[in-house]
Amino acid sequence: MKIERYNLYVDPPPPSHRIIDEFFLLVSKRTRHIPLAYILKKTYFAGYEFYISKGVFIPRPETEAIISCVCQFIKDTNRKINILDICTGCGALAITLAKLFPFSCVIATDVSKKAVQIARKNVSLHNLQSRISVVNADIVPGNLHEKFSLIVSNPPYLTGNEIEQAEEEVKKEPFYSLYGGKN
What is the pLDDT of residue 140? Predict the structure, then answer.
């Protein structure tokens, strides 16, 4: 309805037919197990908002453990570090690390052109274009000659059997971002 939540309680406007139709369209998508992040076109990671769309892996709260480990490993947040984020997806790890380490430079890679497009959009939304480069590459670009203080990754890690047994919402995410091989 494009109004503040408190207005729904204080002075609720009558919903139009268009709003009612949109609402039931969204409900219909959820009943087909389309992930909420894809429906809303946004997700949250480490307290930051990210644009997301179908065809890109949705970052999980469990991945925030990587951020915690990095902060334990590198205590000086003012240290100038080079970071490589492999399998960046929507760019959540790269962007969060760039925000936590304001003097860092980040190269984020992904094999998916769609993921690269979404990660670049998120880099722009967070105004980090001067410090984060997003590259379409399988693991590491061939022409990369830099040294890194930190390499992070949240690569595909599920087996085929695990994907088959996963929740329906997970199965709506790109197979290549889930499937890590037979073992």
Answer: 79
